[in-house]
Every structure is written in structure tokens, then in C-alpha cells.
Amino acid sequence: MSETGIEEKQHEHEWYALKAEDVLKHLEVQNDGLSSGEVEARLRHYGPNQLKEAPRPGFLALLWAQLNNFVVILLIVASVISALLGDYVEAAAIMAIVVLNSVLGIVQEQRAEQALAALKKLAAPDAQVMRDGVRRSVPSYNLVPGDIVFLEAGNFIPADLRLLEAVNLRVEEASLTGESLAVQKNAATVLEKNVPLGDRKNTAFMGTLVNYGRGRGVVTSTGMHTQLGLIATMLQNVETEETPLQRRLDQLGRSLSIGSLILVAVVFIVALINQTNIGDLFTSPLGYFAEFAEQITEVFIIAISLAIAAVPEGLPAVVTISLALGMREMIQRHALIRKLSSVETLGSATVICSDKTGTLTQNEMTVTRLWADNQFIQVTGTGYAPTGEFQVDGAKVDVTKYPAILSTLWLGLLNNDSLLETTGENETSQTTYRIVGDPTEGALLVAAAKAGAIHLDIKEAYPRENEVPFDSERKRMITIHDVRDPQPQDLSPFHDEKHKDWDVIAVKGAPDIVLDLCTRYQGMDDKPQPMTQEVKDRILAANDAMTKDALRVIGLAYRLDKDVPNDPEKIKADELEENLVFVGLTGMIDPPRTEVKPALEHARHAGIRTVMITGDFPNTAKAIAEAIGLLRPGKKVMTGAQLDELSDDQLKGIIEDTDVFARVSPEHKMRIVDALQANDEIVAMTGDGVNDAPAIKRADIGVAMGITGTDVAKETADMVLTDDNYASIVAAVEQGRIIYSNIRKFVFFLLSSNVAEIMIIFLATLAGLPAPLTAIQLLWLNLITDGAPALALAMEKGDPDIMDQKPRAKSEPIVNRSMGIGIVIQTIVQTGAVLGAFVAGLAWHLEAGSIIPSGMNALSFVLAHDWRGVDVQTAETMAFVTLSLAELFRAYTVRSERASLFSIGVFSNKYMQYAVGISITLLLLVCAVPFLQPIFNTHFLSGREWGLVVGLALMPAVAEEITKFFLRRSKA
Questions:
Q1: What is the residue-wise DSSP string for 495-522?
Q2: Quick one: pLDDT at residue 519?
Q3: Catalytic annotation on 22?
Q4: Across the strands, what pairs with 704?
Q5: Domains of the chain
Q6: Are 347 and 737 spatial neighbours (Cβ–Cβ below 8 Å)?
Q7: Annotated catalytic residue, options 126, 355, 482, 786
Q8: Which among 243, 276, 732, 774 could disulfide-bond with 341, CB atoms 3.0 to 4.6 Å apart, if both were Cys?
């Protein structure tokens, strides 16, 4: 498209005042759509079809958000005071760590935002467009002016469109105009200028909803140039919300903050008393206050650093990253999570309510049997390849010798909105095919193609003039075709020249529904005969025989008429369905997915029951359910009619014994969800249609089909299956459990480490000992030793038995009883190990410079010694290294809440190797590099000191493995 006048056309809002052909001419597009090159050029010029979002905070705003924290501000104050007192090295080190921690926080948040933004982009609905003469699906944000878009019931309008075709098209425009009733559209009309939005019958607007019929339109405006863009400055299709888990973590953080600050205050007061001689206040006030001023900075810095170490302020960022990484893992498993809260709920799911077609089955319907006038014919071939034979009793037959069978095939082809396309060749050089549209209609196309009928040829000979689309209430569809070019007998049953320019009214739908509309039937002699009760019984018996074999059965009928009105608004379904001629039945099967049966067993081991909900006949549903092992012995199959006879209390009482619901409408799904939830079940509900949206929303986890699902279902759902596969739901449940389990692991790891740090300082201070850890060392532990393994824990693949455990209760707290016991045990062991190393270091310090009096042991001498002003570098280094190694060693054992380290594999998480390896390397550098030693008050330990330190550092890991051993025995 030439750039001259492009902006004027993008701002043009009077397309409704032009004829459709004039709009196409202005936009320089033909009916076969834009070329790929033209699309790229227009996309570069117009930009993506998206409403602009509010700008994200800049770096300074993000930095302020990191620094605007009470504890961080106290640490900065401590650094400033330290600098004013001349301790520039420590002041610079503290500030460097504060800045580094803030920058890491910014990077973590930005990465999480980018991950969530990518997920939002993936969640954007697709649009069906014509490009390069081929109908294809593209993300709606890639639409450009001139694109020709196809619309169906349930679609959101992806951009502003001038309609080119509207077949019973009704659009709900309440979001834009406030009009509560759906608007009937008419593509042929040309309006006057300055017509209000609500009266523009030939236009469809971005963000509105098709709730009936179908249509086709050309994009006239995209993004901020649409009507919606004119009144909106921001649109977010998927809101990022704080999850219950994040709220519980925030509450946990606040509780820890309050508790730790109280302990910090106690430590500060006790340390200050220990560091100064209160008696000097009375004998030498000036000397006391001079000593007080000298000691208060050190004590203040230790107290503030302890507060930083006590509260895992990086926990929310780690949780967000864990959720984002887990959601990306789910995408690899074909499950797109649209709401973070559903990740938690997935781990609690107890019931999966699943559609049958496409979810439990392959969604490649294949016609395998035909019936007409008391004659069954088998059809060979599978999938969408139009190759196969027609057989009677195993012998190949010429289908043209069976007029009623031929009519059945041709009616299935005419009354059809699907397309059969080639997609290339497979590894054996065979042509591969796909269906664009409904799989059931696709099976009818393929069956007709096996008899020699090509869809495009038939469309030219019998072009569609009107239709009444299928809906779930009527359970049938009507199409009207002009007999423009009657074909000879071997190509079409409607070949009589006397019917030229008449109309064929083709009807397909549920056999019982279609049969009730017929007054005649077509015999094998190609002549309609009066319908009798005997014939009806034969038809119903044939239908029952086919459904017992798990076939989905479609009934077909027709009528020739020369007085069908051309105006869509004058079409009345009741009149079209009078005096129909019943032709035949098509039986098709959608074979179960091979991966479904093991997935069902996998879910059953995890304590999750699966319920099939389908619109198919009970016999079909039961046969499939038994084949895949879904229907448990002795459990029930219930129909929608039976469900209607039950009260809510009665349904609640029997629903636990019902595994299959057949012949149900979307409205029944709501009652099923309510009944299950009334029994305290956590329900995942699948759906794909517009009417499924209420049940999807009502369920604890709404699951939409990504391939066959409507936009309404996808927008309502918490999760979208990109492959429409039941096994992907089970995989998502497993991943949801893994994510939650990983969050619990690093919550346990961080809390137990931080509580131990508090107790180490607290007990040493109460005992009158020097601080075992300096402020710099505490900050280092918090940033490096704790942070890196916590991130590695978020990458765990999950316990081997995670799907053998029962679903957790939604009300279960993160820090449950078992974790609380673990925190207490680890706090005792880590505190004992570190204080043991510290006291040993102090004793060795005294041994080197003092003689222990007789009758006094080393511990008593250490406790009685006056440590004020004494440099205890060796003891501090031993305590620092012991705690660092203890946390790094223990990081391996917390990789599973129950399983032994050796059963999951010591080196199975490569990220843990990186985290621990880097942390130990940095620890050695801090202890060995001369210019770092004064900053961290360390020195390189001797062989005897390393031996004691490593031995003590292994104690928490050993204690953790012993704790898990007893936990496994108690749960056995």
C-alpha cells in the first residue's frame, strides 16, 4: 500500500458510508487478502494492533522502590555514621552491598515483568485471516488495515472492521456503546455519514463480541486508531494480581519483621551493656560517654545488619521468578497459565471435569460407517487423508450405486463450514492434510472426498445462499444452496435439470432431532418415500447400534424448494425445516489419545478424580470412558435429562459416584461444578464454547481449549491448553505442585537460616561474648550464601513421588507443622555448630596468649574473659565459614521435603552446583585475598581450623536427612 494518505485512511471513520467494494479498493486489497510482504510493510508503518499501556517505571523509580525500605534506610544510616567515625572501609563495603542488593532486586523484578509480559503476549487471542489466498490463524496484534478477518460466534472482534459478509451475524457492543441487546449486522447496507456508533450495522468494532452467526470483514483501523483506542489509554487483557500465596508470604514477612526487630532491640541493649562498663557512668561520666560513643556504632551496625539478615526481603522476588519460570515450564507442557493464582490452586485440584472430544480424544474425527434405507456401509481410512474404500461385508462397492448413501455424503459436504487443506509431506513423502474448522464437519468433508467430491467444485455447482448456524440448543444446522450447475449422477444426487435455479435446503444435526422434522425418507431407488413409524424405528435402531460402538452419529436431511427468500432477515428456521426428506446417518469416531490412559492413571495416583462431560450420546461416552479407564467399576453414567430431574441436594449426594455426564448442555456444567464444590472438591473445568464460560469462571480452575476454544472461553479461563489435550492438564497439575513445593523449600531454607543467624547473635550477646559475625559477614550471608541456593531451589524438577501424594488442602499454611519442626531443629543444630566453632576459636585464641587457671575448663574461661577491645578475627572467621558452609551443604538436603538426598541424586540439579560452587569460591576469596581480609575481618584458616569447621558445617545437613527419615517413617 502506498504511504501517501495512509494516515488519513487510518483515521478515516466513515468506512460505513462506502460500499464494500469501494472499501477494498481504498485499502488496496483483494478478496484473497494481503500478501505476506505487504503485511510486513504495513505492520512496520502502523505498528502492532495493540492499545498502548502505561509506561513502566524507570530505573530511578525502581531504585527508589528498592531503597524505600525501613531496614535498608537504617543500614544506610549505619554506613554514614561509620564513615563519620572514620571507618571508611566498612562504610564503603556496607554501601556497596546495599547498592548491589538493590540492583539485583531491580534486575529480578524486571526479569519477572518481562516473563509475565511474554505470557500476556502469548495469551492474546488469535484471529482467522485470509493472507496470500490462504485462510490462516495469526495473533491479533499482527493485524493491519486491509486484512480480511473471518468471524464466528464466540470471537472477540480483533480490530475495527467494515463487514463484507454477515450471515445472521449479531454482535454484542455493550462494552463500547452501552447497548445491552446484540446488534444484527448487515454487510450490504451503505449508511449516511455521521451515523452514531450503535447504528453502524455494517461495521464491527474492536473489543466487541460475536454471539451469533458468522461473517467476514476487512480491517479498517488497528490499535489506538480504533474506536476503542479513542476512548481508552490502556488495555490489559490479563491483569497481574497478588496471589493468596504472595499475601501469605507478605504476612509472614511482616510477622518476622516485628519479631526480629524486638530481638534486635534486645540484642542492641544487651550488647551495649556488655560493651561498656555501666559503673564508669558514676565514677567517670566523660569517659563513659566517650566509650559509649565509640561502641554504639559497632553495636548499632550489628543490630541493623541482624535485622536485614532476619527478614528474607528477597523472598517475594524469588517467589515471582519461581512462578514465572514455572509458568514457562508449563508452556513447554502445552498449558498457558493466565493467572498466577491458578498455579497455587492447581496443586490442590481434586477433580478434573473434562470434555471428551479433542481433550480425551485425538480430535481427528473419521467417518467409519454410513447407513441409509437399512443398509450399512463401512468406510476405511483414518485421519484427514481423503483415501479409503466403501465396503459392504468387507467387499469394496461402488458408492454411486447407493443413491441414498451418496446423498448422505453430499449433504454432509454442503452443510459444512470446514476446509480440507494440504500441509506438505511427511517423512514417507505422503501428502499430509489438516482441517480448518470443526473436526466433525471435517470428517464429513473427508468422507465425501473419498467418494470423489471436491469441496470447491461442489461450492461452485451449489453455492451457499443462506444459513441458520448450529447452536447447542437446537442441535442442528441449516444451509441453503442454489442449484446452479446440476451435476451428472456420478457426481451429485441433485442432478435433475428441472431443479436448476431451485434451492437445496440441507439439514444436519442430532439424529433424533433431525428425524422428528422429516415426513419422508430417501430409499435406495433415489425416490422419497413417506415416513412411517416402522422406518423411524429402523433409523433409531441403526443410530443406537452405531452409538453402542462409540460412534458419533450425525443425521442428514434435505428438501428442494424454489421459494426460499434471499434476505437473511426473512429466513425462518421453522419454515425451512418443514417436510424434510431423511437421507441417512454418518457414524464417526474420534479415537482416544494414546497418552490419555496413562495420564488418567497418573491423576488417580495423585488423588485426582476425572469426570467426563460431553454432549454425545450415553453409549458413545460410556464406550470411550471404558476404553481409556475413566469409568470406574460400578460407577454411573448420567444424562442431562436425568440431571434435570434431580434437586441440588440429590445431585450433591450422587455426584461422587458418577464418572460420566452425557447429552448435557453447557448450563448443566454449572450445576455439576456447584455440586462438586459443595462436597469440598477443588474443581478444574474444561470448556471451549461461549456457553461454557460461566462454568469455566465458576470452577476453581477454568481451563479453555487453545485450538478449538472460542475467545470468550479463553478470556474467562485461568489456563489455556495449547494442544487441547487432557494429558496437558495433568502435566500442569504436576507442575503446579512442583512450583508450590519449590516455594516451600526455599521458604524453609531461608527462614531456618535467618532464624539461626538471629539466635547465634542473640545467645552470644546474652553470654557476654563478642559478636560471632560482623555486619559485613551477615550481609554477605544474606546476599550470597542464602540467595544463590534459594534461586537454584526454584529450578528443582520435583520429588519423584510428587504425583503419588494426595492434594493439599487450600487452607494449609506455608509454614505447616512439619516445616515448623524442621525450622526448630535446624535452628538448634546450626546455632550449636556455629557457636561451637566460635567458642573453639576463642579458646584457641586464649590458649595462644593466656594460661587457663587450674580448676577452670576452657568454656568457663572463655565465658569469664573480658573480650572488650579484643580482636577475635580467628573465631569470627571460623563462625563465618562454618555458617556459610552449613547453609551451602544443607541446600542440597532441602531439595526434597521427604526424599533422601541420595534417592534424588546429589548432582541432579545443575543450577545447585553452580550456586554452591560460586558461593564456595567467593567464600575462599574472602578468606584468602589480602585486600578483602580487612573488610570482612577474616584470615585463611589453618588445617586444624578447617577440619573443625567442615565437620561442624556438615551437622545441619546430617540432621536434615535424619529428620526426613523419621518423616518418611511417620507417613509410611
A1: --GGGTT-EEEEEEE-HHHHHHTEEEEE
A2: 94
A3: no
A4: 687, 720
A5: 6-54+125-231 (2.70.150.10), 243-325+735-802+812-971 (1.20.1110.10), 335-360+593-724 (3.40.50.1000), 366-589 (3.40.1110.10)
A6: yes
A7: 355
A8: 243
